[in-house]
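During the practical work, I worked with a single protein chain and the tokens that describe its fold, as given directly below.
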Amino acid sequence: MLRDAGHRFKNCLKLDFTLEEALRGETQFYEWMGEGEPAIVSITDDMPFGWMIGSIKGVGNSDPDVETYVAITDALRDHCVVGRIGVLDMMPMV
């Protein structure tokens, strides 16, 4: 199903490395069919702090229009998935 979506959306979902991320449980991918334009939404596991928005992209990895972006982020927020920097990215490199 991910490969099919990757072909329809002309993006990296059809590639092995993306499928491997999904199979390892690091990233989940969803096809948005709600308000606005169709889009692929990825959420990333930021253990132990929960899930965060990875990306929201339309066909050809285009950025969605504002209406679509707001509808998706509102829906994700209802499930405690928010856009923020990952915890590991907040920590200074040693």
Summary: The chain has a mean pLDDT of 89. Strands lie at 27-32, 39-45, 51-57. The first helix runs from residue 2 to 9. Helices lie at 2-9, 16-24, 66-77, 87-90.
